Amino acid sequence: MRYGVSAAASVQVLPGERQRIRWSQAWPILLRPTGDDRVHLVQGAGGPLGGDELSLTLDVGAGARLDLRSAAATVVQPGADGGCARWSVTAAVAGCLHWAPEPSIVTDGAELDSRLRIDVARGGSAVVVETAVLGRHGQRGGRYRGELVATWAGRPLLTHVTQLDGADPVLSGPGGSAGARAVGSVLVVGRAGGSGAGELPGVRWAWSPLAGPGAVLLAVGDPGAVSAVLHEQLVGLTNAAVPAATR
What we know:
By secondary structure, the protein is mainly beta. It has one helix at residues 223-240, and strands at 6-14, 20-24, 29-33, 38-43, 53-60, 65-70, 74-76, 85-93, 96-99, 104-106, 111-120, 125-134, 143-152, 155-165, 182-189, 197-200, 203-209, 214-221. The strands form two sheets. Strands 3, 4, 6, 7, 9, 10, 12, 15, 16, 17 and 18 form an eleven-stranded mixed β-sheet that branches. This is Urease accessory protein UreD. UreD, UreF and UreG form a complex that acts as a GTP-hydrolysis-dependent molecular chaperone, activating the urease apoprotein by helping to assemble the nickel containing metallocenter of UreC. The UreE protein probably delivers the nickel. Keywords: Chaperone, Cytoplasm, Nickel insertion. Required for maturation of urease via the functional incorporation of the urease nickel metallocenter.
């Protein structure tokens, strides 16, 4: 088991007749362009582990598009020196961003503090998908804190914090996650989002409109059921093909 490390990576997408992707990486954050507008995030040494301080900066120019995925789920584990793993993402979006990594799984005894800030310029748009899962199968899971902040044309649009702890009877009780292992979200900024709410076996979900062009979906339940709802809602957004807002 290794000790905690600090690392920062970045992706810049430049528009043009054929857009260009520039990136820098630092172990254990590895980036792999897999298309003209797609980049995959790879964890080069497992984890993150407790004590890690990792950050990623995204810059999507006007008229450019970035579809950022991950090669596999992020499995957060305790580090040799204990402590919290920290993961920070900051995105400046004048074009179009689709952020949809695989779920973050926080194992027993681990702790993750995740912070994601999206600044969308007028005429830009973003679809941001995040899923946190408490533990592998058969585990109760560690501690997770996820902060999601979004602005539109320089104006505050959303500040949302999710806090989970499989070992805390309050956070995992009826007033918290009610025993659910997964929380997923879809944030839409700069274009129309979804609407409605529902309850299916193993999952509850609902869309909330934002005070600006966009909406946010929250889904709580079993990992497989949450993933299925997020996928269905994303397919609906894709089929809607709504252009970026310009007002």
